[in-house]
Amino acid sequence: MSTVLEQSFEDFELIVVDDGSTDETPAVVEAVDDARVRYVHQTNQRLSVARNTGVACSTGRYVLFLDDDDLALPRWLERFAASIDGDPAVVSCGERLAKDDGTIVDTTLPGQLGPGFAEYKGWFLPGTFIVRRDAYEAAGGFTPGLPHLHQTEFALRLLPICRANGWDVRTIPEPLIQRHIGGDQRVRRGTTPAYYDSINYIVTAHRDQIARSGPLLARYSAVAGVAAARIGDFPAARHHLATSVRAQPRAWKYWARLGLACVPPIGRAVWSRSVVGARGGDV
User: Fold this and answer.
1) Assigned domain for 280 exists
2) Residue 125's CATH number
3) Which of 69, 70, 125, 171 has the fewest CB atoms in 10 Å of its CB?
């Protein structure tokens, strides 16, 4: 919250959605003497519903989202405010990743997303995109109950609507968000049933759209296959990895993964040791 209140651009409203926390969030927000800050409490319904609640309680023409463990760089809002001249539907920026000691280990800028995302450029993670309210509403907001990959799934619905309506989608080629990469974040996220449920929902619900790009279908199916294998569901792993092979038959890495899934003891041993990409299914 402090990095938002310290922004160089000051004309904003900050909706703090407390999604049933048991920590000191109410006291922390109450201690902030700033009329731009509003506190909203709801019973725990997870991130997608919390984001939708925040939008419903806001009044601005544009909305953007920031998780409580991410840092907005000083010119975050200033650069977004300058970018919406002309009323674009979406604007996205880059981000940088930092270790515990503050060392910057990676920077990602908005890139070409291909036919699965209506041929737009972008980068869709918390804090990296601003969306016009009517575009957000046309896409239906975030999908309730989706534990992970909220922004990717939202972008899969949002960007085709922008293309169909001829709405402008822009990018800012610089990092305006700093995200923290903890010690085991890269290892743990993709090892849970909740992560598999999320990527499986994406490749199932948006299959026709994703399949417009062979590389994208192969990549997302491979992520789903490895996630299934990590939770011990090798039949599902083989199904997804076979899809990745069909989508990119000349890519040896997909054949190798399918081979591992066909021999569960070996696959289990390999994938229990390997590192899970922190953003394998994100865009």
Assistant:
1) no
2) 3.90.550.10
3) 69
